[in-house]
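Inputs:
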Amino acid sequence: MTVKASERGTFSSKMGIILASAGSAVGLGNVWRFPTEVGNSGGAAFILIYIACVVLLGLPLMVAEFTVGRHTHANTVDAYRRLAPGTPWVAQGYLGVFTSWFILCYYSVVAGWTLKYLVASALAGPAGISGNTAYFESFTASPVEPIAYMVAVMAVCHVVIARGVEKGIERSSKLLMPLLLLIIAMLVVCSFSMPGSEAGLRFLLQPDFSCLTSDVVLSAMGQSFFSLSIAMGCLCTYASYFRDDARLMRTAVSVASIDTTVAVMSGFIIFPAVFSVADVEVSAGPGLVFITLPNVFRMAFASVPWLGWLFAMLFYMLLLLAALTSMMSIHEPTTAFLLEHFRWPRRVATRVVTLSCVAVGSLCSLSFGVLSGLRVGGLTLFELFDFISAKIFLPVGGLIIALFVGWRLPRRVVWEQATNGGTLRTRTFGLYMLLLRWVAPIAIVLIFCNELGLL
Ligand code: PFF
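Outputs:
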């Protein structure tokens, strides 16, 4: 079933388009995953490879997703169905919808943790929270508290999505994204002014190419996909709300620039702070922001505790806002699908997505505690969701998008979308097609094989 253009939402301004898409891209992946990867993979050298991946793979794939969404002005499933009727390509539409729903289930659990740490830091006062491993583990293992925090963040996301594209997503992105950028700027200044922060800056700015292995290159590619929200149906769905005069290539460049700047700035916030505290235990993964940083905040500002308190609250606020705008974008593909495909009212579609994610997300949360014994292939439920979505659905989806837009869509359609029907001059169209047809598919196959341990 199709929905008339007038019944669909539309982003009302170019700024709204950029901020909403950047809101999707900027998330836990930037503030939490990126610094961890940088820490594990040799600092500046990883950052350089990451930027190359964003330019050579991320950008063309983002424009490709925008192309599918804006050309059809439909939810992801109907977009592929319309572009390639009666063919198996529609599976990519279903994959996009399913992947976004699937990711929302466990992403919202971590978003709940950020709210808990914001509240805990605020309540702890200048003394700071005891951010050690036992505190983190007992919180995540508890059966009720993390679920309550997850539900609270999800409720905010629900309210935004239920209000629709312009009044909900666009308006909140216009408010939250500038706030997020302001918080980042304040935190960078704070972090740079700590004594001993130079060591962290050196780590981030002096590339050590001896750390570069094929593994590092491939994890930089994986990180760039996750961070730019590629292959999850989000960008395609958002682009279906773009106006016809939006410039796809320019929007993609703006979004990728904001996303990469935020990721690098997060490194600039975290590493100078961590390096300024010599004897702090640095842990990888979730431990970096939920275990290491609370200690850093307390110790680095031991002489001015209220500043440490402020730093901690601002940091978790940043993490929460980033998670929230990304959650909105992961919620929308399934909501748009239910709303347009089955003609459910937005209110009902939103409710179904929220409730189903809360139900499955609760199981993911419980997998840190009472359900920790429940394992599939040695992975807990949470780890399984992360593994399947980030390591399987994501590269598979990216590959299909590159092949579909690069090879299956008529070149004229791709050109019309890139140039707004020939009204824009684009000197990079040939390069874009080359990257999409050849470089992206080959690189994705390499990532995929590497992540499954086949290389
Ligand atoms: N790109 C966001 C991040 O870096 O955290 C997260 C994200 C958004 C993940 C959308 C998945 C997604 F579908």
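Remarks. The longest helix spans residues 305-341. The CA atoms of residues 32 and 289 lie 7 Å apart.
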